[in-house]
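hiii so um. not sure if this is the right channel but i have a protein structure encoded as tokens and i wanna go backwards to a sequence. like what aa goes where. can anyone help
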């Protein structure tokens, strides 16, 4: 599916989930002993899966998947019917995490260096021959604009090699590696969109940094013409063309609070709503390339929900769900003829398995479990959890309790408060190894979708503007106090932990509520809003005006920045602090962690500080994940006596 949307802000954390298992004794309301959970080794939660990332070749003859080789995820190819696969890549320094089939004979994949996020595009034949780096440019990031599924030897990519702040569009010819610029970015375009024939015909630009302009051309020979302008707070994000290549299908919240699936008429400049939900943003839209019909839309309540436009798609999805009861089922791969699907299952207690579904026979066959060493019966359930913030705003979240407890029986447990990164994303229901690890070690874990989290409409999102460390932090605090009020949390054993914005929220939690939290863990978190704004990646700079409106302007809001920057308020922290950081982080510069640690040490307070020289915004390499979570467990055991 061809899709792009205006990225409102790119602070979104690609956080590595972690989980923890616990040998825990507790008391229920009757004083009965809770069954002790089986202690599970840290490595079982955080090691690479045996096989994952399954895809199917366009002709349906091969599977591809990711599997460890020398501790790094590499791409393997397996002919359907064979017992063993063949490794075709040789990643040694960093996992391959994003790859795809470009035709029946070739795999493409993206890989960065040490977490710097300057991804390069590589290609390799399915027999392992002709391995090539197509975009071997220093300090240049490659993005995929269109995989051109119907043009097997070409793709369209974005590169910021001419200007590090913007991405130009290039057509890449795969068999000789030649690049042809097909659209030069004038400096304000944030996304490109092709039609169903692979022609670049739509672009989204920023005007004055805050207004979104939709540009259109009838053909690649014509000039770009603006067809709509809207403020970033309410905008239309085109996902793909209608099947006649005349209009656009996408997501819009223009004139409404909740995002809806719409068809935008290029001639009349009007929208027609195809599907909307009164409570949640609808952001997913899917279609059949072969049959040329819209199939379904999706949104997230506390779980993923679907609306079907197409009875055939509904029939097959329901058939899959009937054959795989108790799990969420997602189609992750499909053949060109759409006769075979790769299906991935998951739940809150399982990373699930991969299956192949034959659409003609309606039979499903298991390929492999993702993490067979984890027994889902030993895992914690993730339950929806709601509370009202102090100003009356309803906050949705998830509460995971150690095995053997329910909300009714959980009393005086040690708790980890886990605000998500972003901040303009949301937590969802599903398996989170980080949460499971902590639950296994005896902790209840609360994740809250504080104001600003996406999926709940424009008004809820905008309530976060210039509220870093203020009302957004109140939502985290109020969730913590709600657990204490209900008797679930032991008020002396509450820890706050998060990554990226969640790391920032951890630091601000320790500052604003010095007696509420017994300890804090800051993972790649922001500590100084002034320096954070100065060290953002160059391709975020066109969006600075939006950031100023959403976070604050370091010049006009300097007093606010001092008030809500942890580094200037470190004297208020009383609880033990653990900081973890990747040296090559392009989003949250290592200086953010260094400043915070220095500020604490200046007060004579020792801070545990873990730096990984070969990581960026989150630890990707397996051995670094192990080190981080071992250090986390040691820190918790030292400071939170269960």
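sure thing!! here u go:
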């Amino acid at each position: 599916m061809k899709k792009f949307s205006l990225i409102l802000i790119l602070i979104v954390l690609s956080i590595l989930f972690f989980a923890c298992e616990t040998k825990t004794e507790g008391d229920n309301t009757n004083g009965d002993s809770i069954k002790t959970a089986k202690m599970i080794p840290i490595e079982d939660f955080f090691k690479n899966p045996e096989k994952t990332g399954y895809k199917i070749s366009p002709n349906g003859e091969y599977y591809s998947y990711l599997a460890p080789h020398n501790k790094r995820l590499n791409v393997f190819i397996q002919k359907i019917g064979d017992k063993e696969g063949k490794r075709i890549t040789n990643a040694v320094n960093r996992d391959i995490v994003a790859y795809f089939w470009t035709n029946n004979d070739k795999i493409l994949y993206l890989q960065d260096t040490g977490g710097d996020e300057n991804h390069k595009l590589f290609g390799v034949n399915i027999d392992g021959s002709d391995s090539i780096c197509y975009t071997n440019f220093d300090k240049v990031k490659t993005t995929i604009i269109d995989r051109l599924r119907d043009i097997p030897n070409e793709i369209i990519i974005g590169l910021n090699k001419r200007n590090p702040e913007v991405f130009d569009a290039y057509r890449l010819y795969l068999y000789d590696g030649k690049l042809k610029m097909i659209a030069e970015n004038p400096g304000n375009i944030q996304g490109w969109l092709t039609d169903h024939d692979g022609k670049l015909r739509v672009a989204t630009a920023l005007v004055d940094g805050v207004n979104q302009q939709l540009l259109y051309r009838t053909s690649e020979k014509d000039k770009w013409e603006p067809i709509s302008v809207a403020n970033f707070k309410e905008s239309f994000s085109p996902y793909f063309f209608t099947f006649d290549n005349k209009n656009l299908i996408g997501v819009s919240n223009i004139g409404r609070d909740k995002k809806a699936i719409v068809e935008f008429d290029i001639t009349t400049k009007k929208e027609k709503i195809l599907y909307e939900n009164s409570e949640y943003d609808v952001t997913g839209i899917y279609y059949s390339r072969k049959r040329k019909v819209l199939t379904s839309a999706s949104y997230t309540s506390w779980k993923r929900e679907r609306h079907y436009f197409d009875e055939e798609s509904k029939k097959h999805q329901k058939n899959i769900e009937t054959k795989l009861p108790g799990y969420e089922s997602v189609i992750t791969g499909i053949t060109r003829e759409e006769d075979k699907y790769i299906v991935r299952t998951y739940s809150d207690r399982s990373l699930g398995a991969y299956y192949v579904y034959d659409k003609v026979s309606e039979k499903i066959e298991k390929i492999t479990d993702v993490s067979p060493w984890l027994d889902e019966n030993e895992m914690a359930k993730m339950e929806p959890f709601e509370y009202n913030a102090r100003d009356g705003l309803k906050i949705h979240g998830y509460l995971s309790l150690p095995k053997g407890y329910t909300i009714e029986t959980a009393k005086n447990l040690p708790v980890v408060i886990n605000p998500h990164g972003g901040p303009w994303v949301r937590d969802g229901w599903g398996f989170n190894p980080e949460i499971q690890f902590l639950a296994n070690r005896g902790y209840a874990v609360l994740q809250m979708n504080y104001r600003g989290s996406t999926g709940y409409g424009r008004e809820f999102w905008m309530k976060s503007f210039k509220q870093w460390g203020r009302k957004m932090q109140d939502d985290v605090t109020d969730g913590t106090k709600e657990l204490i009020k209900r008797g679930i949390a032991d008020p002396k054993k509450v820890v706050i932990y998060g990554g990226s914005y969640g790391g920032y929220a951890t630091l601000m939690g320790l500052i604003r509520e010095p007696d509420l939290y017994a300890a804090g863990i800051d993972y790649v978190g922001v500590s100084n809003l002034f320096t954070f704004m100065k060290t953002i990646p160059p391709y975020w700079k066109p969006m600075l005006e939006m950031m100023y409106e959403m976070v604050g302007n370091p010049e006009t809001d300097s007093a606010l920045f001092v008030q809500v920057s942890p580094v200037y308020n470190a004297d208020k922290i009383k609880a033990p602090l653990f900081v973890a950081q990747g040296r090559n982080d392009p989003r949250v510069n290592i200086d953010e962690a260094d400043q915070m640690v220095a500020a604490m040490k200046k007060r004579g307070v020792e801070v545990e500080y873990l730096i990984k020289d070969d990581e960026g915004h989150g630890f990707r390499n397996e051995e670094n994940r192990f080190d981080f979570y071992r250090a986390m467990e040691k820190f918790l055991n030292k400071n939170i006596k269960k």
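oh and Residues 378 and 403 are 7 Å apart (CA to CA).
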